[in-house]
Amino acid sequence: MKYAIISLIVSLGVIWGCSTQPSGSSATGVTNGDFDDGTDTWFDGDGDPVDQTPDVFSEVDQFILVATTIGGGSVEPSTGAFDADEEVTLTAIPDNGWHFSHWGGDAAGSDPVTTLTMVADTLVFAWFDQEALPDDNDNDNDNENQNDNGDDEAPVTIDPGSGFESAAQVDLGPNDKAVIEQTLVQASDVHVYNLGNVAPGDRFIATCEAISGSQFDPLMAVFGADAYRIFWNDDINLATGDYDAGIDDLIRHTSTQCYVAITSTDFAETTGAYRLTIEVQRDGTLPQIAGQTIVIDWDGATNVTVAGENWGDFDPFDAGVLDASFAGQTEALKQIIVSVVEADYAAYGMTVRSVDDPTPEGPYTTVFLGGDSNMLFGIAEQIDFYNADRQDDCIVFAEAFAGLTHSLEAMGQALGNVISHEVGHDLGLMHTTDVTELMDTTGAAHTLLADQQFGVAEIY
């Protein structure tokens, strides 16, 4: 059951991983937004699956190593390209006041020096814990912490369920609060609790913390009655070494059931005792999403920077680059793209403009349409809940669509779908798993040729 829950957590949320195109393969990743998580099928330009036999990988001469630190410390070397089968020794170096805890990702163990053999692109996590300060009142503090965020709520022990159907019912009481203490015995276990109904505007506040000297590193997720994930959190603050899970956010949909799932972080197999503190503040009001102007820029640009990365220079948009039969029809394709995006956002009060139009007054989102990528169709600045930053930008890599279709109308539909997808992230939307929806990430490339709509990920 754990992997079904984790699959929901990942597939409905942000895909943070990154996969590169294998050497010798002409395949292109088909995820319509953000990074491919490495589990998608690869498809050719016609949307047909590519057979990735071992021969596809036989031409790889080097692999990339990336070492990421969690907490206060560093790793030497932290990144680099290494020959296939080369042995690389990594050294974890803690900052003052920190100590090395353990390796994660493609490395394991608690020795600060470890050696890896490069047989694939490798991602390593080095975990550092902050040194504990002496405290003569440890026992008193532990007793006090039992009721943190719970006011007068005494901790209770509830036998958890292992899935949605068997979820343990939690009585929040007249104060809409509960404090549950339980122990995760195996890292593969999932504890599921059912809080009952929630409504738009309800403020959901929860923390899951290790107790009694436990080394448990929790992952917490919240689901609605339809098993769609509402929130999730792995670590409250990685930078400070706070690996407990915490959520404080507003419910946006009515749901007759609200499930809280607790399991071990995916970065390490951990077990132990935990305290789950829950509070639901009822009858709040959802903030109104700020109006937004979307400007599609197809004039070309230099040093296009989105999501903290420089994606280089973009040539002006040319329909003929996407298919030879489109030569001379750039303006017609532009009109189709604008019409698709306007239709997608018509119900939400968004204004869609071309860079050819006068520059709008006030803040606006720019969609850079151009460039190429062998990994993705588009990327957004961030998932900006409630559109707090009205100047988030995004990219749709137009040249990645080359050869997808010989129909001008279908090409405009595909480009418009991905523009609406990436702008959706800038407005606060996450991924879904339905090929008819704009925020989907599961469909093959050809699914972009059909009209898609906002579905379970809906703008307010």
Write the layout of secondary structure elements.
Layout lengths: L1 H10 L50 E9 L2 E4 L2 E5 L3 E8 L3 E8 L7 E5 L4 E9 L7 H8 L22 E2 L7 E8 L6 E4 L8 E8 L7 E7 L4 E5 L11 E6 L7 E7 L7 E10 L11 E5 L7 E2 L2 E2 L8 H4 L7 H16 L5 E4 L10 E5 L8 E3 L13 E3 L11 H19 L34
Parallel strand pairs: 1-7, 8-10, 17-20, 17-21, 21-23
Antiparallel strand pairs: 1-3, 2-4, 4-6, 5-7, 9-16, 10-15, 11-14, 11-16, 12-13, 12-15, 18-19, 22-23
Level of helix content?
10-25%
What's the gyration radius in Å? 24 Å
Question: Which class of secondary structure composition applies to the elements?
Answer: alpha+beta
Give me the side-by-side strand order of the main sheet. 8-10-15-12-13
Give the distance, in angstroms, between the N- and C-terminal Cα atoms: 33 Å
Low-confidence stretches: 1-60, 135-151
* Helix and strand sequence: HEEEEEEEHEEEEEEEEEEEEHHEEEEH
Approximately how much beta-strand content do the residues carry? Answer: 25-35%
Count every beta strand, where a strand is a DSSP E run of 2 or more residues: 23
Please state the average pLDDT score.
81
Q: What general outline do the C-alpha atoms trace?
A: globular
Count helical runs: 5
Largest β sheet strand count, sense and barrel closure = 5 strands, mixed
